[in-house]
Amino acid sequence: MFLPRTIYPSLLDHLSRKQITVLTGMRRTGKTSLVKQLLAQSNIAQKHYFDLERIDIRMLFAEENYETIVYALTQQGTDFSKKVLIAIDEIQLVPNLPSVLKYIYDTYDIKFIVTGSSAYYMKNQFSESLAGRKKIFEIFPLHFGELLSFNGVKAASFDFENIGKYVPSEFERLKGYYDSYINYGGFPEVVLAESVSEKKDLISDILSSYMNFDLAVLSDIRNPVNLFKLIRLLSVRIGTKLDISKLTSLTSLSRGTVENYLDLLEKSYLIKTIPVLSNSPDREIVKSKKVYFLDNGIASLSGDLSSGSKFENAVFNQLMHKGEVAYYQLKTGREIDFIVDKKACFEVKETATAADLKNTESLAKNLDILRSYVIGRNPAQIFDGYIWGGNIR
Q1: Residue 83 maps to which CATH number?
Q2: pTM score, two decimals?
Q3: In Å, what is the CA distance from 74 to each residue of 59, 199, 212?
Q4: For the chain, what is the domain count?
Q5: 3-class secondary structure, 307
């Protein structure tokens, strides 16, 4: 059964275009399921699906003479005088594949759909050899609205322009699902797992696969233990400014190595850093970025997170699907947790009060932003400008 993702209409629209459709993101975020649904809905008669985790398929697409690949497919009954749809999974496993795609794309009437598990590889290799011939779609773990859909729960989408009021019955209906999202994240198979122990086992397996396969393809990491130590250190620093010197001291790695690892972790979709907004550099923090994990389950597995850190990380993952996210902080320490598209400010508090909103509104004036809200988890006090976290979907 196909379970819909909010990105799917955009993928379906791109299916009719000549450009190569590229799906990238962490392993096991659902890229293959999306590709197979696109294949099923395409009206192109000649369709092929290739998984490069199979050694014989890798050998085929690693052929030095690209016409040999075309000949092999012809032997399997493909008529290249007519349109062909070819889907290829895990393209990072064949280093020269962008050149192969470029030649076949330019020579024959072929629509390609390809997936890869790393932005690090995809963005570097594809930008060089397939400029103008592809469009990249980033596939993330499920956001909260998608988690509800996967569980067969209907709920209206969130709209900044028309934020719904807090409804106690809706809180009771959705609270359990939101707690699960905060604790175990949004990898599709984790969401669909029935028991807590199964969810935890799957999250552990996903992180191990990421370390052992994705990162192994991307980089020559001599000591994975040091990288895992860095991941754990980052997980307990969710929502705080990155201090490279501190991380260097705690890991005993060189500053250059820590910076390279951070770049690798971000480009391979494990973490995300957000910038600070600044109007008056003499009063505000202007350089430091904050770090978040792109899945709560991975973040929780990697370190000893507080309940508040888990909640803030979950809210970040909800808001990042609504626009560009930044933060704001004065040198005195006063801050706004999240600013979306420079239009709306959000403070995150597990148990929020009206005073939190007033503080956010006061800081927002420095940025000439008129809309301010407080996002809470435990609705002990309800007031205008309060949003229950589970309503962001």
Answers
A1: 3.40.50.300
A2: 0.92
A3: 17, 44, 36
A4: 2
A5: helix
